Amino acid sequence: MSVSPVLRALLRPRLALPARAVHSYPLESHVGLLETVISLGTFFVTVLVPSGWVLANMESYKKRD
Asked: Could you tell me if 15 and 22 are in contact, meaning their C-beta atoms sit under 8 angstroms apart?
């Protein structure tokens, strides 16, 4: 019985990239202030607001109805 190529590819150990290959050249463009504000704002809204909601309403979640 032979192992399918897809299964063989999934089971093959992954090789880590060397650190020098990750940062091999300088940035092509500067990240602007507006892009930074939008990305941090999106992170805040999508991650921190729901977790803050759960923490703020913890007592209502603990109640047995």
From this structure: no
For residues 46 and 62, give the distance between their C-alpha atoms in angstroms, rounded to a whole number: 24
Burial class (CB in 10 A: 0-12, 13-18, 19+), 50: exposed
How far is residue 55's CA from residue 34's CA, in Å, rounded to a whole number? 30
Residue type, 62: K
**Mean of pLDDT values over 17-44:** 81
- Checking if the pLDDT of 24 tops 90, the result is no
- Which pTM was predicted? 0.46
Rounded Cα distance between 42 and 39, Å, is: 5
